[in-house]
Design goal:
Blueprint: H1 3-11, H2 15-23, E1 35-38, E2 45-49, E3 52-56, E4 62-64
Antiparallel strand pairs: 1-2, 2-3, 3-4
Length: about 70
């Protein structure tokens, strides 16, 4: 995922397009995110599947986040 492009889409109010950019072919994975929020401290996205936090592993697969905080 191109993080700069993702943030630019968010700043322009195109949240659905930003989420689609983050998924890029991983829509059918078990833990693919259904929503996201932006971390106020770092400015980076935090992805969620339902109420569970998810992150992408080294292989490009969406997994439950190991460190929630």
């Amino acid at each position: 995922m191109n993080e700069e492009e993702f943030i630019a889409l968010c700043k322009n109010g195109k949240f659905k397009e930003a989420l689609a950019l983050a998924l890029q072919g991983g829509e059918k994975q078990k833990f693919s995110p259904s929503r996201f929020s932006m971390d106020k401290k770092t400015g980076k996205p935090i992805f969620y599947r339902g109420n569970k936090r998810v992150e992408m592993d080294e292989d490009g697969e969406w997994q439950l986040a190991k460190n929630s905080w």
